[in-house]
Amino acid sequence: MPRVVVFDEFGGPEVMHVVEEPMIEPAPGEVRVRIEAFAVNPLDQLMRSGASPAPVPLPHARLGVEGTGVVDALGSAVTGLEIGDPVILTAIPDASVRGSYAEYTTVPASRVVARPAGLGVVEAAAVWVAYSTAYGALVEKAGMRPGDHVLITAASGAVGRAAMQIANQIGAEPIAVTRHTAKKDDLLAAGAAAVIATDQEDLVEGVRRHTGGAGADIVLDVVMGPGQQDLLKAARPGGTLVAAGFLDPRPTPFPRLPLTIFSYRSFEHTLDAVAVKRMAAFLNAGVRLGALRPVIDKVFALDDVVEAHRHLEKGLHAGKIVVTA
C-alpha cells in the first residue's frame, strides 16, 4: 500500500511517522498524482507544531503544500490531462487531509500544471511555493516594473532568492537584506544588485545609498514583526510594501506613512485559475531562458522526513529542502 506521513499530536519533528494507507481513487474532476518529490516549507512546521493560523484536525493529520509527480489516475470529467503527464501541484488548501508528504495524493485537476521541461524532479518539487509567492507579491500585487528598486527581506531564503530572480527577469533592481555579512557574496552571486547586511550597516542608510537617496519603490517583507518599521522608512514616499510572510511572530506596529501596504498570501492567486495560468507562463519562460532556477539545499528520503524537519528548524539552510518519495 502507498506510504504517507502523518502526525497524531502537535510537537517537534519526532511526532511525524510513515504509515501505509489504501490507494484512494480520484473523485469527479480530480486527478491522482504519484508523488516523486515534495519540498519542506515553514508552513509545514507551523502545522506540525500546532502554531498554524488555520486549524489542523487531529489525529492522523497530513502535511505538504507543494510537490511534483506524474498523473496516475483521472477522475470523471477531467480534460486536458493524460495518465503519465508530469505535473506540479499548485495548491493543496486542505493539506492536513491530502498533503503532498506521501507517495500518492488526489487533488482537483485545476490544481496542477505541467512540469517545466527544463526542471528535474528535485527542482520541480521546490519551485512553486517560492516562485508563485514572489511573483504574486511583486508582479500581481505590487505591479513591479523595469527599473524599480525592490528591497527584499530574508533574501537567503527560498522566497527571497526567487524574488531576486523574478526582479532580474523583469528588469528591476533587487536589493537583498540579510542579517549576516558572511552571506553577502552568496547573495550577489544569486542575483542581488546590492546587499545590505544589517549586522554592519544601517538598513535605511544602505537603501538610500543604493537608490540615490530616493528609497525603495517596492519592499517585499517576508519577516514581519517590529523590524518592518525600518523597511517602511527605507521605502520612497508613495512606494509599496507587500507583507508576505510570518517569520517574526512579534506584533507588527501599524504605520502612519504615505505608502501603499498590501497583505499577501499565496492562496490569493494560486486558487485563481487565470492567475495560475499567468504564473505558469512566467515560470516556463524563466526556466527556458535560464533566469529562474530554484536553489536546493539538501535532499532527504521519505523515511528521513523527521531529519528533514530537524534540518529546517536549525535555520541554517540556503535554499529549499526536498524529500523524494
TrEMBL record:
<dbReference type="GO" id="GO:0016491">
    <property type="term" value="F:oxidoreductase activity"/>
</dbReference>
<dbReference type="InterPro" id="IPR036291">
    <property type="entry name" value="NAD(P)-bd_dom_sf"/>
</dbReference>
<protein>
    <submittedName>
        <fullName>NADPH:quinone reductase</fullName>
    </submittedName>
</protein>
<feature type="domain" description="Enoyl reductase (ER)">
    <location>
        <begin position="11"/>
        <end position="323"/>
    </location>
</feature>
<dbReference type="InterPro" id="IPR051603">
    <property type="entry name" value="Zinc-ADH_QOR/CCCR"/>
</dbReference>
<dbReference type="InterPro" id="IPR013154">
    <property type="entry name" value="ADH-like_N"/>
</dbReference>
<keyword id="KW-0521">NADP</keyword>
<dbReference type="Pfam" id="PF08240">
    <property type="entry name" value="ADH_N"/>
</dbReference>
<dbReference type="Pfam" id="PF13602">
    <property type="entry name" value="ADH_zinc_N_2"/>
</dbReference>
<dbReference type="InterPro" id="IPR011032">
    <property type="entry name" value="GroES-like_sf"/>
</dbReference>
<dbReference type="InterPro" id="IPR020843">
    <property type="entry name" value="ER"/>
</dbReference>
